[in-house]
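User: Structure please.
Assistant: Input sequence and predicted structure:
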Amino acid sequence: MKLTLTNTLTRKKEEFTPIDDKNVRMYVCGVTPYNYAQLGNARPAVIFDVLFRLLRHMYGENHVSYARNFTDIDDKIIARANELGEDPQALAERYIKAYHEDVEALNCLPPSHEPRATEVVSEIIGMVQTLVDKGIAYVTPTGDVNYDVTKAPKRNDYTYGDLSGKKIDELIAGARVDVDEHKKNAGDFALWKAVKPGEPKWESPWGQGRPGWHIECSAMTKKLFGDHFDIHAGGEDLQFPHHENEIAQSEGECGHKHVNYWMHNAFITVDGRRMGKSMGNFITIKEARTKYSGEAIRLWLLQTHYRKPVDFSEDALAAAENRIKKINKHMMKMFKQSEIRQEVGTDNFTRSQEVLEKFEQALKNDLNTSVALSLLDQELKYLDKYSNENKIKAHAESKSVVQTMLHLLGLNPFLRGYEEKSETIEHNKLKQTIIETQIAARNTARANKDWAESDRIRDELAEQGILLEDGPKGTTWRRK
């Protein structure tokens, strides 16, 4: 089964075909670091981390690039810094560090790139100048540069407003903008803002100033991925104006389609209302982590399909924590077996591969993580059954399947957690068992000619200081 994703632009589930299967590129809008990230920010981080894992599983780790940015120049950062009497960049740096702690606790893989708006100011100025030269943007008497939305480029399959599902007249009429007599249209938006006292500033052809919000992501994607890449994603609140304006800017500048698939996750809600700082009903990831494990928060988010709202409640997170404990119990039992045999019966091999295939099909079906989790539960029960019957040989293959499931869902930190909590003797036994199980999984991958998975396991062990040596009599291991 091929990967299918819901493209927000077409409102359809489409088969994913990369521009270059040796260089699959995905950009996800990150956070504006002016305060601690709220749970709503955790959802895109977790969801698109799963997509990143799946793409690497399909195309190979070295063939997928994932960028998640920081908008470290913004009105909110400046306002918050002024409120605290702090330098804006120092404030942004502090909350970037806090965000890294949050997403690490959620077991999100580090992205391939973490660009910052402050790193691409020269690229921003270049893009704005091109838009001015093309007559798509104009300079105001005050030194601002605005995008003229009536000049937004059109393609056969896109007109400004299609991403948000609105017509340009509706967008202009409904735009929530400050009154500005220098704007040609109410919906025109800033590409460059003239300097104001106490704000960060850069030199430009239009005088000192700083970038507008939307142009920052356009410049970051162009610098990293060029004028045309595969996936652009984020929360559904970014459809308009941010992503709609990104399309207008980027395609106005380059003259052609620049993103093939647009993806958006639904909101987290509280009693049916969107969770958000402006609503006053939010909880930060940092606060949630004082009550619940990062694993439970991640699992809670994965239990609901990413395009459906997920309602926050203490009961829901407590239930996720209990589900984590059950998984932990299964995992402890699985990895404390006294003997691991690599030889596997044909019937069990076939069954395990069918389970894994169904699991991968669920993820490939527009990231259906809820179905994938139910298949994980089934496999853990199967393992528990054969553990009780002491049929060690029967579940060696199933263990490697479970490991693959956990890795793709990002739930594999449990293994490290067990090691940390074990006594020294038990720790050493458990560590050896885990290593041998991973070697068995690698042998299966090699037998199936799944070289990407084989390399992943080898590299993961190498990071833990375990070196593998393949020889005529099989695979042996030693510590660095």
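The longest strand covers residues 24-31.
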